[in-house]
Every structure is written in C-alpha cells, then in structure tokens.
Specification:
Elements: H1 2-13, H2 16-33, H3 35-39, H4 42-50, H5 58-65, H6 74-84, H7 94-111, H8 116-126, H9 139-163, H10 168-173, H11 176-182, H12 185-219, H13 241-270, H14 273-287, H15 296-303, H16 306-309, E1 320-323, E2 326-329, H17 330-360
Length: 361
Amino acid sequence: MGTLYRYEMKKLLSQKVLWIALLIMTAIIVGQGMTGLITGNSDLLKKADEISGRKVDQELISEIQEGNRLDDYPVMKNLWMQCIQKNDLSGVDEQTLYSSRLASIEKQMNTYQLSDEEKEYWNAKDEKVEKPFIYQREDGYSSLFSTVYVVNFLMLLLVGIGVTGIFADEKRSGTDQLIYCSVNKHKIFGAKMLAAITEGFGIAVFFFVLVMALGIGVYGACGFDTQIQISIPCCMMPITVGQAVLIMFGLLAMAGILYAVLSAFLSQVLGNHSAAMGVMVIVMILSMLNIPENIRSISQIWRYMPGAFIGSWTFTDYRLTKVFGHYFNILQMAPIVWGLAAVVAFLITKLSYNRYQVKGR
C-alpha cells in the first residue's frame, strides 16, 4: 500500500500544468498580500499602535473625532461604518455605535426570518462579548478575511487540475486493465484516493501558510487575542481573531479534502479529464450565485457550498439548524455537511470503480 501511495503521489505531482498553475496562483496571492507594503502603511500602523489596548468608548471616540482623524484609523472607521450602516459618521457617540450595531444585527436576523427562539440563542452568545470593545491592532491575522474568498476558488481550481485525471487518464490511455491484472484493485483504489486527499489537504495548507506569512510579514504578528468584533463588529460569537483564523484554516482544509474527493469522483464517473475539470469550473461558478436570503431553506442549503461559504460573512450568518432539539450554527453544521458529502462521493466512486473493472474485463 505504501509503495502504491508513493507511486500515485509521484504521478499527481509530476504534472507540469499543476506546477505552472501553482506558480501563477502564488504570484496572484503574493501580489495581493504585498499591497500594504506597496501603498505604504507604516504611518497608519504606528497610529493604530498608539491606541492599541484601549476601549472603544466615548473617550476614544471623542478623541478620534477631534480634528477629524478617523481616516488615520482605517480599522476603526470600518468598525464604525459596519455598526452605523452609513457613510456619514459625524456625531457618532458610544451609545449610538453599540445600539446601531444591535439594530443592524436585528435587521439581518429578520431578513433571515429567524424565530424568537433563534434570536435568544444569539443574544445569549452576544452577552458574553466584551463591551465596550477593546481595540488591538490585528491586521496581520485579519488580512486573511479579505483574501480567503479568492484563495478558496484558486484552491478549487488547483485541486481540480491536479486530481481530475487520477482515474480518467488511465482509462484514456488503456493502462487501467494492465494495472488491474497485476495489483489488488482495493489497494489501487485506496492508494489513489489517499493520494488525492493528501494533495487537496496539502494545497489548502500551502495557501493558508502563504497568506498568513504575507499578512504577518507586512503588518506584524500582534493581535492574535483581539476580539473578533474589531474586525467583524456584527459577529455575535465571543471569539478572538486568532480563533477565527484557525476556524478559517479548518474550513479551508476540509474544503481542500472535499474538492479532492469530488474531483476523483468526477474523474471515475465521467472517465474524461477535461469533462471532470469542466464540472469543477461549473461548481465554482454556481458557488458565486446568490440565492435571496428570504427564501430561507434553499438559500441556507445553497450556502453550504464551500465556494459560497468560506469568507468573513460566515461569522455573521445567524441562520441555525435544529437537530434533536438543539440549535447548531452554520460553523458547526458545515463540517458535518461537508463530511457527509465527502463520504457519499467516496462511496459512489468506489462502487463505480469496482463495477468498471468487472465491465472492463
């Protein structure tokens, strides 16, 4: 099994198109990540450091408003705008800021058609959020939130490029029957699927490490313990920026594995490398479609598509799923849904693979 696995990994990694695509995608991510250095942000970072550790209360709000200095604090300006939900920030005070945040959340909950019981679930979570918020500079970590959406789609394409030929290429060349005659079919399948999953997971880890290295390299490593509300004010979960980043890593890793299993499934069922890759592109495009939120059931199911799911907006999706009398939020449900989807795709792939061998002979 170990020899077969290494052989399959070597085949996957020997594809020139994979490395060319990886190089192009790396250049795209690096270019986006280096924007902070190119535009020059050292002065803004120094100013942000001066107020780091302070409460976002009336004293700090008044201090920033004096001399119209809000533009010197982009993160603070973004926080205010997300709470107030308008561009005119004149006359903002502590009471207005936090009451407007709750009003904005209530409006979004009504859009999602949440019940009173579901609202109580989130209100209980929000009571644990420290207020007034404590500002700390967290740019190095929160930079992930602005790039993870693009990274996710690049990962889908790269995994598709690397894995969609894992079964199809042997069918096209006619070497599959030769292999079946000399090696146990169950070991071949296991080695191929393990290699595909390894590649999907490896690509996710590479992209995550790359994005975080760029963010920390440009902005610094401070702010891991900053409350998430500084970056995403309407999040009602009492978590830190660092915890949110780790959640994003977990989602990326699971998505990479799901993409790999889906690519292998399409490779086996369609038996054509190009057709399988075409379906992966269609999946990516479909993920971009926006189902109206007032159509709750359909939009909530659609939202679990990894391409539409992974992003900062996930932390402000208040829709819940009730299972055996207990509510699960969208971050808790996604791993379950993706895990079940991966298992189903895996089993169908195995069934198709076994039947194909009998038919092929």
